[in-house]
Every structure is written in C-alpha cells, then in structure tokens.
Design a protein that fits this description.
- By secondary structure, this protein is of the alpha+beta class.
- It has a single domain, classed as Alpha-Beta Plaits.
- The chain is built from two helices and nine strands; from the N terminus they run βαββαββββββ.
- A hairpin with a 2-residue loop joins strand 7 and strand 8.
- The two termini are about 20 Å apart.
Amino acid sequence: MLVIVVETAPPRLRGRLAIWLLEIRAGVYVGNYSAKVRDYIWRQVQEGIEDGNAVMAWRTNNEAGFDFITLGTNRRIPVEMDGAKLVSFLPEGAISDDL
C-alpha cells in the first residue's frame, strides 16, 4: 500500500499523480506498487511540488509496519527515536524544511 498526501501542490503535479494513483480525497492519493515504481512516483513529486509539501507512506517490514518520507515546509517533522520514526510538531509560527 502506498499513500501520498500533497498540500498546495500545482495542478499539473496533482494530475500526474492521478495517472498512477487513486485520489480518494483532495490531495490524498493511494495505490499499490513496487518499490521501484514508488521511487519513480516520489521523484515526480520532488520535481513538481514547487512551494507545496508532501508526505509519502508505504507498507514495509519493520516494527511499525510502515515507513514515510516528507518533502517541503510543514510544522510536522519526522524524528527518529530509539529506531522508531515518529512525528514532532514545531511550535505554532515556527516552520522548518522537512527531512
């Protein structure tokens, strides 16, 4: 399972994602692809996101059962703690580029 969520993404990126994935809500795309296709789709997001932000989550064989990656500016930032990837919130008004 693959989930991509985009915010303030250009229409051409949203259209590009809709070619590969099903848009179940505005900016929320789901599908089921191999790691190779997942990486290709993420490169499309990286090239087209402009000033927006995105997160991609996918099923994997780890303790949590999934992994995720972020792109762009957002108050939610990924942090690793004792081998587990969690999400931390920056204070309101503080913004950082995600990893």
